[in-house]
Amino acid sequence: MKLTDLKWTDVAALPRSTPIVIPIAALEQHGRHMPLFTDSMLCGEIIRRVSEKVGDRVLFTPMMWLGNSEHHLDFAGTMSAAPRVYLDLLRDMVENFLFHNFTRIVLVNGHGGNIVPSQQAVFELRQKYRERSDLCLIATTYWTLGGKPHEQDKSIKQQQMGHACEWETSMMLRINPHLVGDLSKVQPVEFGGAFEPAHRGWITKDRTEPGHIGDPRHATAEKGEVIFRTLSADVINLLEKVLAWDGKSWK
Question: For the chain, how big is the Rg over CA atoms in Å?
């Protein structure tokens, strides 16, 4: 069910164990061949598919399209909330529901730069409400839940999410092909692995001149459907676990 369709009295009447899903994404550069709103459109399609399966058992808020995209600011059109501002924004959105005693809140993320802030937000809120034993506060990113599209379709060459890459470009070809540019003019950009498994601070232009990371030339709408189906199933599985949670155990 959609928060936007409800009256405040409808929300007040919901069981406080109803899972609340807050989708978060971004508006930022996606190379020379993909639209700025890619992350929000793709995450929105994941949420649409998920909501059709879980129905009225879960409450979905509108997409928060503004993300932590500071590392993309060298590319025109990118919009970003500074990291600490964004962290506070996420905390506030979750806390709106904690104020009304909802106990199961899930941030479903569709942008890499939001991963750390979303995890930190739920971590900090759990500390703030440490006297509570009934809270299930979760931050997840839809492509990190274990699904492996390349095992479902052997023609998918990429084995991880990149940026405006084979995966994202395929997904956009599936839902909005008219927004994808000429892939014949795109060259691959290697993922790289500088200093891994340590983490090196970076901005996007450190890694890529055109803005994408990966090889979008292999993208097809058919692959996009496989990727959507696989990653949506992961989110559905997660929400089923949240729905089935006994309200107290550590799982």
Answer: 18
- For strands 59-60 and 20-24, give the pairing: parallel
Q: Cα–Cα distances in Å, from 228 out to 6, 90, 107, 148, 232?
A: 28, 25, 18, 11, 6
If one counts every other C-beta atom within 10 angstroms of the C-beta of residue 202, the result is 11
Query: Is residue 3 within 8 Å of 11, Cβ to Cβ?
Result: yes
Region 203-222 average pLDDT: 97
Residue 56 CA to residue 239 CA, distance in Å, equals 12
Q: Which residue has the tokens 């395929």?
A: 170
Query: Can you tell me whether residue 107 is helix, strand or coil?
Result: strand
Look up residue 110 and give its two tokens: 């569709």
CB 89, CB 24: distance < 8 Å: no
pLDDT in tens, 60-94: 999 999 999 999 999 999 999 999 999 999 999 99
Q: What is the pLDDT of residue 250?
A: 83
Query: Which fold is adopted by the domain 3-244?
Result: Rossmann fold (3.40.50)
Compute the distance between CA of residue 166 and CA of residue 125 in angstroms, rounded to an integer.
36
Cross-strand pairs, 213: 163
- State which H helix or E strand residue 241 sits in: helix 221-244
Report domain extents, the chain: 3-244
- Rounded Cα distance between 112 and 220, Å, is 22
pLDDT tens column, 7-18: 999 999 999 999
CA gap 35, 125 in Å, rounded: 34
